[in-house]
Amino acid sequence: MEFTQVLSSGMIKNDKKILRGWSMFDWANSVYSLVISTAVFPPYFSSVAPDTIKFLGTEIESEASYSFSISLSFLIIAIMTPILSGIADHSGRRLKFMKVFTLIGSLGCMGLFFFSGPDTAKLALIFFMIGTIGYGGSRVFYNSFLPVIASSDRFDKVSAQGYAYGYIGSVILLLIILAMIQFSGQLGFASDASAIRIGFVLVGIWWFGFAYLTYRVLPTDNKTPYSSQFMSDGFSEIRKVYRVIRKDSEIVKFLGSYFFFIAGVNVVIYLAAVFAEKELGFGQSQLIMLILLLQFVAMVGAYFFAYLSRIKGNKFSLMVQIIIWIVICIVAYYVHSANYFYFLAIFVGLVFGGIQSLARATYSKMIPADDSSLASFFSFYDVLTYLAIMSGTFVFGLVGQLTGNLRYSILATGVFFVISLIILASSKMDKDERFAI
Fold this sequence. Notes:
- This protein is mostly helical.
- The protein has a single domain, classed as MFS general substrate transporter like domains (Growth Hormone, Chain: A, Up-down Bundle), CATH 1.20.1250.
- The protein is 77% helix and 3% strand.
- Strands 1-2 form a two-stranded antiparallel ribbon.
- Helix 10 packs parallel to helix 14.
- The longest helix has 32 residues, at 249-280.
- The chain is globular.
């Protein structure tokens, strides 16, 4: 049954217009995740960059340097966002910080236009890192609005709606960019590469433009004047949130499990295209078909596992997905055929969307929804996400660098999911009254 809830602040929870507007931010910034981090930039970087890139006197394989750049980006975000979210909570500037990171990310995407050859590979990695920092930082504040606009019984469905909007919006822009590449000559582009570089600019414009549909409906900032105490007050917010989380064993267990499974999931997000190209010989058209398949099935998976969690509980739904991920990693190690990899991609897509959506909703149920420190709570959650991504991509790149075989990197990724399953199995989430809706 649909219902709205009016808070003392005048904010209406479960208002359909606000929920749709909030979800539009996924529509806006998911183009970064699909076009930049998954579909177009990684294979373009792999084809244009030199075999090795020199950093601090050391020659590093280009694929490993790409993986390490992801790790470094999320390390920077993990250091910055707790401080900024604490300041945002204390100063009442949550929406402003969301806008600033969106601008940073959009400009980073547009900067990739200047990646025109092997000699600009380092510049490309710098702009890629700027886009990644903007993406990760903006999502901290975006996620923190979920408990503000929806009641806890709607978290699973609304979170899934956001991811679904993201899949649809990002596919639309990807198809536009693919058409530009396919018909580059007829459209007046000098080459396919020129069309791709213009596509990076479109990502930034799309992200920055559609984000305003979200800004229009979210609660406005209740700002307090800046003062010299904001930095210390920001740290105080962080310490407050840490003390709350530390005392709640179920949150600790969930976040422990989350750290490991989200590390594995993001290895797939950022490096699946690299694996398919290097190990299976996928061409550009095959990679695009693979990614479109993933996006479509992921949208279905987000809604399916939201439904499953309503019937069987969040813990059961998460454990089912983690087990599927473990099987995927094992099977991927043995796959040598493109056709089998397409089949495997169906299962990847099913749990790719579902586990991210349900994780966000699960955490939202565990934290105090009326707390003034929501950005700090989600900063803690997102810092774990970024440290997990840093760890997962670093391990993937390191194993690949040491063995020269990305299949061993896939097995290493599977270990993350096994550890996650063990931790989650020990939780009593299914008996927690916060999930008794």
